[in-house]
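Figure 3 (text version): structure tokens given as input.
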């Protein structure tokens, strides 16, 4: 066997590079018992060519990347206020995608599909469809469309592709192998990991019950009702809307507690400071822009192609700090309690019950963590606007 079905010590991130590159179309992505997309090989189609293994990070760590700490950093916002409010940070992913479409390129980014409540990569060359890509969907996306993206590149098209660092690293390697890297502008986002779809199904059940619906019209993971920092989940169905704060929703709590993330996220080497992308985008967290309530993007230009793409845009430019200062506010290391993660995932695999898995790890956490969560939940009784004002008052005291 020469394909990605062979065992290694590294888990599959579901990046989709193997499926995109396979000449036999023998690899697909499917959800596993714990609610994560993994690559599956259809043995009767495979001709044992080994191409999938050669691009997969489970078999060899990608090398040749650029270091963020040695790359230019920008603090940027779209000049269009509505775009900034619709997007998760400063709307730079949107501006990049729009410029590529104006130049006749294809764009491949992530939409939310309300038919099956999944995030999925989708290709478009239409300005009208671009708003579907706006905003982070804090889920693992189905990357099946990356195969079509490479097919278009083979036919001579230029493409802008957006994704998490594992997805972009896998695609960069696949494109390099096929001699297509020059056709792609690759933009990755800072990534702290992806949660299980079993958690999302649990959250969707709660929201659908509240909205008396079987299907959402729209889901926004970062609705900036009062503040860019507040992580407000919004779902709409007909005339009704659901708003879920970070303090009250199990989805946000589990996402930020960093235990029930994908196995591959636990010791991920792709979301560190080394990257194969042209650009890396994120929230400009930290004290520098803590007073901003609309959203500021941190943008690292890793290659000349990335730098050139930024130069084509008409953006609002703010004063950036040093890369080290910006990176300090990000979650870049591996998560520490591997045994807790493995135990909780085992419970999830066996029971498929998110409440049981959460109970398992919370009953084993330290008293500091329990107190932190209790305080966060207690702050939920304050109105959103007041919480945002308190945070700002607190940060301006610290900055003096
Ligand atoms: C799972 C996840 C974890 C993240 N963790 C961090 C973090 O720890 N720190 C940080 O600073 N930023 C993180 N981000 C990125 C951040 O939320 C913003 O997406 C980023 O700053 C770009 O914002 P924007 O305003 O420029 O564009 P936006 O309009 O927000 O554009 C989002 C772009 O990301 C793509 N995208 C959306 N959802 C997904 C997805 N599920 N998988 C892959 N690509 C997707 C879209 O195609 C679009 O191009 C994370 C995003 C995701 C999806
Ligand atoms: S890590 Fe990526 S390339 Fe490797 S098997 Fe999983 S989906 Fe395929
Ligand atoms: S070995 Fe070749 S044919 Fe088989 S799954 Fe991998 S890429 Fe496809
Ligand atoms: S943490 Fe790493 S493996 Fe997990 S989604 Fe992000 S880039 Fe991929």
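Below: residues designed for each position.
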């Amino acid at each position: 066997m020469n394909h990605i079905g062979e065992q290694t010590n590294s888990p599959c991130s579901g990046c989709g590079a193997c499926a995109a590159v396979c000449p036999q179309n023998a690899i697909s992505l499917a959800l596993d018992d714990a609610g994560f997309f993994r690559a599956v090989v259809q043995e009767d189609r495979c001709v044992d060519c080994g191409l999938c293994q050669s691009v997969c990070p489970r078999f060899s760590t990608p090398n040749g990347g650029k270091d963020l700490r040695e790359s230019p950093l920008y603090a940027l916002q779209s000049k269009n206020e509505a775009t900034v409010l619709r997007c998760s940070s400063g709307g730079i992913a949107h501006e990049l995608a729009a410029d590529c479409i104006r130049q006749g390129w294809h764009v491949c980014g992530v939409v939310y599909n309300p038919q099956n409540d999944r995030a999925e990569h989708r290709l478009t060359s239409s300005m009208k469809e671009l708003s579907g890509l706006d905003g982070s969907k804090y889920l693992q996306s189905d990357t099946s469309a990356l195969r079509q993206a490479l097919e278009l590149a083979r036919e001579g098209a230029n493409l802008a592709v957006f994704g998490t660092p594992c997805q972009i690293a896998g695609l960069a390697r696949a494109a390099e192998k096929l001699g297509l890297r020059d056709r792609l502008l690759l933009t990755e986002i800072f990534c702290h990991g992806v949660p299980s779809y079993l958690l999302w199904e649990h959250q969707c059940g709660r929201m659908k019950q509240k909205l008396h619906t079987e299907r959402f019209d729209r889901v926004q993971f970062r609705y900036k009702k009062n503040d860019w920092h507040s992580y407000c989940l919004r779902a709409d169905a007909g005339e009704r809307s659901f708003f879920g704060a970070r303090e009250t929703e199990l989805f946000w709590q589990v996402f930020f507690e960093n235990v029930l993330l994908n196995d591959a996220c636990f010791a991920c080497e792709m979301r560190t400071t080394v990257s194969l992308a042209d650009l890396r985008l994120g929230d400009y967290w930290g004290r520098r822009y803590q007073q901003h309530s609309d959203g500021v993007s941190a943008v690292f230009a890793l290659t000349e192609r990335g730098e050139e793409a930024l130069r084509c845009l008409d953006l609002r430019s703010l004063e950036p700090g040093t890369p080290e200062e910006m990176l300090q506010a990000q979650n870049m290391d591996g998560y520490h309690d591997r045994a807790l993660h493995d135990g909780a995932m085992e419970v999830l695999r066996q029971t498929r019950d998110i409440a049981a898995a959460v109970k398992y790890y919370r009953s084993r956490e330290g008293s500091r963590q329990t107190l932190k969560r209790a305080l966060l939940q207690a702050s939920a009784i304050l109105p959103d606007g007041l919480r945002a004002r308190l945070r700002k008052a607190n940060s301006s005291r610290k900055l003096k």
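Residues 197-259+335-399 form one domain.
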